[in-house]
Amino acid sequence: MRHIFIINPLAGQKGRQRKTEDAIRNAGRKLRLEPEIYRTTHAGDGERFARQVCEESEGKEALRFYACGGDGLLNEVINGVYGFSNAEVGCVPLGTGNDYVRNYGLPEDFLDIEAQLSASAAESDVICYTVQTKGKKEAPRCCINMFNIGFDCNVVDQTARAKNWPLIKGSAAYLLSVAIILIKKKGANLKVCYEDGSVFDGKLLLIAVANGCFCGGGVKGVPLAKTDDGKMDVSLVRNVSRRTFIRMFPKYAKGIHLSEPSLSHVIDYRKCDRLEIFANGSPMRLCTDGEITDARQVSFEIAPKAIRFLVPKGAGSRQNGRAKGE
Fold first, then answer.
1. Mind listing the GO biological process terms from this record (predicted)?
2. Phi/psi of residue 70, each to 5°?
3. What percent of the chain has pLDDT over 70?
């Protein structure tokens, strides 16, 4: 089995790449393994490299890829290995949000390289999607954690800019961005077509289409999502007032908002296999595992147990943010 660490040199704090590479080599020597290191050079390079290795190794050897970066790099590697039965994927979370790994434990549970090299593989669904923009359909892709449109997407977009401001880092950048977007109260105008034939058509605050629970660095906005249940969770929040949102946000962030009776008329939460969303008017801003693009139309479909994800020993006891058995 080959162990291949794909590192985004731009992820995390300065000097983090060198420390990660040293830890990889030290763990390899201790476990008598020879892990490989590949440094990405541009956006999309992780996907290209992973696919190339899978194609060259198909039917010959087993592969374990470890995405060392944020959710964006993990998304690249997932798209690179999707469809190859000889590949498994892990994540060493060096980014800002690190949201997919939170479905299995805390991000720090995934920083132990020795534990990563001896991790167990868990089956995970992915959401396959096709985007149409300017009358042209793009090639199908997949998402392992979450899509956000409306408020959440706008916050991610604002956070990316806020992180470049002096003294604004990490969670502070996210919370400041929430406040800025709340003042603007910018949501989305969409037509949402569910598989049962029902339709939502109009303005909304946000919609999340999810395989995992978390976005925005630990906001548990889709609390019933499970990474291996063969369903995607769709959470639509209607166009509420600022006062209602301020009252709702602390519970939304903790993932306890669905049990609040006063919010039952605000949130439409479902599990489904397929979904279509159309932009009314200008293109929608679509956030896919933290990366933002524009789209006129998006079609989603669940692909059950399509990826084998590496979970270090001990981290699995916190699957989906809950202790096993809850």
1. phospholipid biosynthetic process
2. -100, -170
3. 91
